[in-house]
Write a structure and sequence with these properties.
Layout (H helix, E strand, L loop, with lengths): L26 H16 L9 E6 L2 H9 L5 H17 L2 E6 L8 H4 L8
Parallel strand pairs: 1-2
Helix pairs in contact: 1-2, 1-3
Length: 118
């Protein structure tokens, strides 16, 4: 402790998911839901079944909860259980890597200002 960060500049990144959150939730729950959304997006193709998937996150809480596959928080457990069910259903293994917030390639897309539909 503290975790050391990887350098995300080693890989090429592109935005595949970006969407506004509809309801207000705690930041840790939102971080876990973002991890679940990325894993669910990756698991939509059968060719990705039975593979290992790497998730990069800047939230140490979300990383710890996801890696341990459980939490003392009921709200976080709801999201983690869905992630665990996805892993079982797709015969996949997820592993998580920490990256500092300033280096996180997913941070700029998360700052998009969304227009409200009228």
């Amino acid at each position: 402790w503290p975790r050391s960060s990887v350098n995300p500049a080693r890989w090429t990144w592109r935005v595949v998911l970006a969407f506004p959150w509809r309801e207000r939730q705690h930041i840790n729950e939102l971080e876990l839901r973002a991890i679940f959304a990325a894993l669910r997006w990756k698991a939509r193709a059968v060719r990705n079944f039975g593979t290992r998937k790497c998730i990069v996150t800047d939230s140490q809480v979300a990383l710890s909860v996801a890696a341990k596959c459980r939490s003392s928080s009921k709200r976080l457990n709801r999201v983690v259980w869905r992630t665990n069910a996805l892993a079982l259903a797709t015969f996949s293994h997820f592993f998580y890597i920490y990256v500092r917030t300033g280096l996180n390639p997913a941070d700029p897309p998360s700052r998009i200002k969304w227009r409200r539909k009228r």
